[in-house]
Endonuclease III
Amino acid sequence: MLNKKQIRYCLDTMKKMFPEAKGELNHSNPFELVIAVLLSAQCTDALVNRVTEDLFKKYKTPEDYLSVSLEELQQDIRSIGLYRTKAKNIRKLCQVLLDDYNGEVPRTKAELMKLAGVGRKTANVVASIAFNEPAIAVDTHVERVSKRLGICRWKDSVTEVEETLMIKVPREEWSETHHRMIFFGRYHCKARNPNCPECPLLDLCREGKKRMKRAEEN
DNA sequence: AACTCGGGGCA
DNA sequence: TGCCCAGAGTT
């Protein structure tokens, strides 16, 4: 298991590799952030951005999403996977925002997770990025990278990965940590063919060393 | 823990 | 063509 100093080195290195790693879902508007992250489930961020560019011009408020038919909203997000379910969830979510939250987006993880279509990851992203609440969003990239490097254990659940990161990463870096690890995971430490031979973190990477050794034997 | 939803991107 | 993708909900 990596210690705090080693983890800091990892995060600094990731920043050097992807200095532009800002996170494309970094909307200043909490409501738009909820919608964007909800839509992003199981599809690429580039696709979501393409759709939300037009979507957010047409729909500004929860009322706007409820003012059209379900079919019309589905058409507007048709190019995104799971669009039927997501359109239904957006309508449910907007209705709850109006009924229970005066049209505003709630700030805490617990409240966010009660919204339709908002699970652990979306709730964490919105709470941490939009409201700077204490949370680290662990998606598949963050989980994979954490486990390969040895920041956490292989068998850890998503909750355990989350807890470990919150303990070992300074509070003020939680939000940025999310984006750095996602870029690192998406473009370098990929699920299928991680670029271990050219990885600057190979020396301290548990999984990387294992893979290099295995490749050498073949 | 395992399954389903699902169109687009990429090899 | 076949496989995967910045997940959530249900069983």
